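Q: For a teaching handout, I want to show students what a protein-ligand complex looks like in token form. Below are the inputs, and the small molecule is glutamic acid. Please produce the holo structure.
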Amino acid sequence: MYVGRFAPSPTGPLHAGSLVAALASWLDAHHHRGLWRVRIEDVDTPRCVSGADDIILKQLAQCGLVAEGEVLYQSQRGQAYQFALEQLVNKGWAYPCGCSRKEIEDAQGQRLRHHTPVYPGTCREGLKGKTARAWRLNVQQVIKDLALPLTCSWHDRWLGRQTQNVEQEVGDFVLKRADGLWAYQLAVVVDDAFQGITHVVRGADLADNTPRQMLLQQALGLSTPIYMHTPLVLGADGDKLSKQNGAQALDLNHPLAALNAAAAVLGLPAFEGTCAQALAYWAELAVWGR
Ligand code: GLU
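A: Here is the structure, written as tokens, with glutamic acid included.
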């Protein structure tokens, strides 16, 4: 049984870019006669905006995008994340890290990837007098113990074959942050498994998180969903559309216009009629059979 999801961070209302991911995940789930779940990813509390979750759910409903079952809130899931971290610590696959961002950048000579320095593994052998700040996954150790290939590869239903060497390109990534908050990678993996997600459909900006999530799934003995990363809406500066580069909240007075704009990004034909008719029409198109 297909189970898909849309997992917005409540940092503001939906905009033209986030609607594309919502629409694509809904259409793919319905094409496969599956379930579509919604999860509010409110772990990064400093970035969350109070009330944005309700606005997002209302915007989705106005476009005819209604979730099956209860909406899951990551802020309620701390115990599950703690349990997962303990499992990794017990296996010797997670360790405390005392490095500051500056120390990591200095050690790496500014080797940055998406503004995040590749972690050089400084605390892997112990804290050496430093105070524990964050928890990290020992990528090398997981790969070795589980006899995994050094380069992770997967077939993305939209992008085709993808590869990443997590150790070289990302390093030992954070599971629990220095400020005590749970990292996106751990939360998303634990919750995709908890919600029984079989297919992840989300924006292409998240594609390069997939190998980290696959590694965590293997380390936690969880199954790996099938992935599809859909095209992004770009802002005036050429970056992914976001509040920072001018994204407007969706105009709820014209939900069909918003849906048609999102559909165009996915290469789907424009549709005249009601939102429900448009959704039913697009869900039957062959693109979702890929
Ligand atoms: N919460 C993430 C975001 O809004 C999406 C996570 C995911 O789909 O895996 O960018």
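A: Two things your students might notice: The CA atoms of residues 82 and 182 lie 9 Å apart. Residues 7-9, 41, 188, 202, 206 surround glutamic acid (CB under 6 Å).
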